[in-house]
Amino acid sequence: MTDHCATLRHDLAACAAAPADAPRGLPGQAYVDADFFAHECATVLRRGWHCVGRADELPQPGDYLTLQLLDEPVVVVRDDTTIRALSNVCRHRGMPLVEGRGSAKRFVCRYHAWTYGTDGALLRAPRMENAGFDPKSCRLPEFHCTQRFGFIYVSLADQPPDIDAELAGLSDVIGPYRPEEYRIVHSAQEVWNCNWKCLVENFMEGYHLSVVHPVTLHGYTPTGLSRKGPNGPGFTSYFANYPNNIPSRGAGAPGLDEAARNRSSLFAAFPCQVASVAASLLVSLNILPLTATSIEVRWTMSVYGDELDDETIRQRISLWEEVNREDREKLEAMQVALGSTHATGGPLAGEDYEGTVHDFLLWLARQDAMAA
Ligand code: FES
Ligand SMILES: [Fe+2]
User: Do 253 and 176 touch, CB atoms closer than 8 A?
Assistant: First the structure.
């Protein structure tokens, strides 16, 4: 580990130790430095559970999607019994087996035609007649993969943390919306030139809403009505409350109370998922870190029931495209400035506005201490 990286780890611990009434952000180098990013990849990012999409993106056996999760090419595939995350690297000489999304009964490598089942077993290896060749030893390695709230989560760790312990308490915040019942209506992927933590922090604070989104969001989620929500071992949340005078945004799930119906509940499932759930709409941004200064963002929009007609859904998709564009523009501009020697990490606003950012830094510091 470089001295620089050690200094940044020390800075992280110092942020976590700041007095509760004087929280501070991390210095800019923590969002820029390649060695610190490599350290995060080997620790907090490799260990964590990453949301890779919605279970209903893969409705039929054989449906798959692929992604690059840190150093690992991964194919997430539904087979007859479950959804699995397999290494997308041929056991022969390392070709990626599949790209993009699709549906397949078997994965046939396009280099020498080794053929694998959707459970990862090697089924066929043409002309491999060496006596010492053992096909059973050539299964595709499998990563831990599980589902919660209708989302698919993958961890690259040999022994990932207990996801239910990490998310303990999150169901109190989002459970009443019945997130597992939402159906997907849109997905997109984009590359943003910013550090992964910048988007986690940005999405999770209500402080910028009225400034950055004066037309798109301010009318129904103004900064002044942001309120901190519960946090737990591996998540945080806040409520973006709606003013009294706006039209209903939908009834949502049976039994959803008035307060939940009149706000968007935003949560981060650390390290890399940020999402907003409201009565009729669920948007999740799944962040795939690429380098210290770039990320792939895969975002999905899902709706509850049939309350929203097609035209309204189209409008919501365009609204979120615009909101994401507004955030991306700010984060990409800030990313350049974070390289300054004067980006030393400033004071954070109070609990209702940036308490979630503080929760995230505390979580990062705890993870880092465990990795020490
Ligand atoms: S690399 Fe896949 S069959 Fe050769
Ligand atoms: Fe925003």
Answer: yes
* CA angle in degrees (0–180, nearest 5) for 139-144-145: 110
Q: Is the pLDDT of residue 3 over 90?
A: no
Most informative mutation of 87, 89, 95 for ligand 1 (most atoms within 8 A of CB) = 95
Indicate whether 118 and 231 sit together in one domain: no
List the structure tokens of 163. 């996801």
Residue 46 pLDDT > 80, yes or no?
Answer: yes
Q: Residue 2: which pLDDT band, with cuts at 50, 70 and 90?
A: confident
Q: Average pLDDT in the 66-90 region?
A: 97
Compute the average pLDDT of residues 53-71: 98
- CATH, residue 340: 3.90.380.10
Q: Is the CB of 97 under 6 A from ligand 1?
A: no
DSSP characters for 201-254? HHHT-STTHHHH-TTTTTTTS-GGGEEE---BTTEEEEEEEPPTTSPP----ST
Contact 305, 325 (CB under 8 A): no
The atom number, within ligand 1, closest to the CA of 125 reads 3
CA distance 243 to 221: 7
Same domain, 182 and 110: no
Q: What pTM did the predictor assign?
A: 0.97
pLDDT in tens, 129-141: 999 999 999 999 9
Q: Residue 329 CA: which ligand is closest? A: 2
- Mean pLDDT score of the chain: 97
Ligand 1 atom at minimal distance to the Cα of residue 114: 3
Tell me, yes or no, whether 168 and 308 share the same domain.
Answer: yes
Q: Whose CA is nearest to atom 3 of ligand 1?
A: 112
- On whether both 301 and 173 belong to a single domain, the answer is yes
Model pLDDT for residues 319-346, shown as the tens digit of each residue: 999 999 999 999 999 999 999 999 999 9
pLDDT in tens, 281-312: 999 999 999 999 999 999 999 999 999 999 99
- The finding on whether 92 has its CB within 6 A of some atom of ligand 1 is yes
Q: Is 112 in the pocket of ligand 1 (CB under 6 A)?
A: yes
Mutate to test the pocket of ligand 1, among 88, 109, 110 (most ligand atoms within 8 A of CB): 109
